[in-house]
Amino acid sequence: MQFHTKNKIIIITAPSGAGKTSITRYLLAKYPELSFSISAATRSPRGTERNGVEYYFMDVETFQKHIRHNDFVEWEMVYEGKYYGTLKSELTRIWDNNQVPMLDIDVKGAIHVQQQYPQSTLSLFIEPPSVEELRRRLESRGTETPESLNDRVNKASFEISFKHHFDHIIVNDDLDKACSQAESIIVAFLLQPSPESNSNE
């Protein structure tokens, strides 16, 4: 198969707990033409996380400087003082390597990237089978307080209301099936000729 990778972007978005990270990992492991787009974040590394691998870790002041210089394709203050974003230089780094950036980002950021690169993006929204099932999955992680669990579930319900903004909706009630659906959609996208060039000036 002859894949066309130039100037393309793949976005996988979903509410927290819907399974987008598992699907992203599956695709990255199978297709060397795809490369994980590393987000910038102002939080501290957790566990074995390393700068430039899981995230580009930076302080708030540095992040805000990047905002002022228009260095981000998308950014958001997710919680008070906690910023996340995708640097334009990260997309360029991956394109220069003849790969397609794969963005695992939240719904607002995903809409923003699509608006800037309308000809070049493929977007997949991963939907949980139901909000109740999402609550159950988040509870089973054992990492949430009752308050943070409610916040995440409310945010998820809000994000699901935007699902029709994306090219494809995949309901993840069976992970293997969801991975396989995502794979067919992405392979078809990679087989299409590439757009001429990207401009987001």
What does this molecule look like?
The chain is α/β, with parallel strands linked by helices. The chain has a single domain (9-191), classed as 3-Layer(aba) Sandwich (Rossmann fold). The chain has seven helices and nine strands, in the order βαβββαββαβαβααβα. The chain has helices spanning 20-30, 60-68, 88-96, 107-116, 131-141, 146-160, 175-191; strands spanning 9-13, 34-36, 39-41, 55-57, 72-79, 82-87, 100-104, 121-127, 168-171. The strands form two sheets. It has a five-stranded parallel β-sheet, sandwiched between helices. Strands 4-3-6-5 form a four-stranded mixed β-sheet. A hairpin with a 2-residue loop joins strand 5 (72-79) and strand 6 (82-87). Helix 1 (20-30) crosses helix 7 and helix 5 (131-141) runs antiparallel to helix 6. It starts with 8 loop residues before the first strand and ends in a 10-residue tail after the last helix. The model has no long low-confidence stretch (mean pLDDT 92).
The domain tally reads 1
Reading the helices and strands in chain order gives EHEEEHEEHEHEHHEH
The total of beta strands comes to 9
Fourth-tier CATH superfamily name: P-loop containing nucleotide triphosphate hydrolases
What is the CATH architecture annotation? 3-Layer(aba) Sandwich
Structural class: alpha/beta
Major β-sheet, in short?
5 strands, parallel
Mean pLDDT: 92
Shape, per Cα inertia axes = globular
Helix content: 40-55%
Q: Please indicate the percent range of residues in DSSP E strands (runs of 2 or more).
A: 15-25%
How far from one another are the termini? Answer: 33 Å
